[in-house]
Amino acid sequence: MPALTHFLLLSATLFVVGVAGVFMNKRNLLIMLMSIELILLSVSMNFISYSYFIDDLSGQIFVFFILTVAAAEAAIGLAIIVTLYRNAGSVDVDQIRRMRG
């Protein structure tokens, strides 16, 4: 049985990869959206692991709310990205900034 530290290390790794994806890639909106999803996944993993090891269900219930927000964010974000791709022909953040007017 893995210990709590194993789950926390995996969660921290997912969080660091997600933050690095947001900060290192400032051009592609799709990769930024996936990085935000990784960050939400790492937070969910923390809630589930603490909830399991404390033997309390409140953390696992809270994860359902996080997953609901993540699914809505992904659906709306992908719809915006598809619309921007149809209008601009690219998902480059710099081109989107130029579309202001």
Keywords:
mainly alpha; 101 residues; 4 helices
Q: What would you note in describing this structure?
A:
This protein is mainly alpha-helical and 101 residues long. Helices cover 83% and strands 0% of the residues. It contains 4 helices and no strands. It has helices spanning 4-24, 29-54, 58-88, 93-98. The longest helix has 31 residues, at 58-88. It is elongated and about 50 Å long.
Number of DSSP helices? 4
Secondary structure: number of strands: 0
- Approximate strand percentage: under 5%
Low-confidence stretches: none
Helix content: over 70%
Q: Radius of gyration from the CA trace? A: 17 Å
Helix and strand succession?
HHHH
The profile of the biggest β sheet is: none
Give the integer mean of the pLDDT values: 87
Query: What gap, in angstroms, lies between the N and C termini?
Result: 57 Å
Q: Which outline best applies?
A: elongated
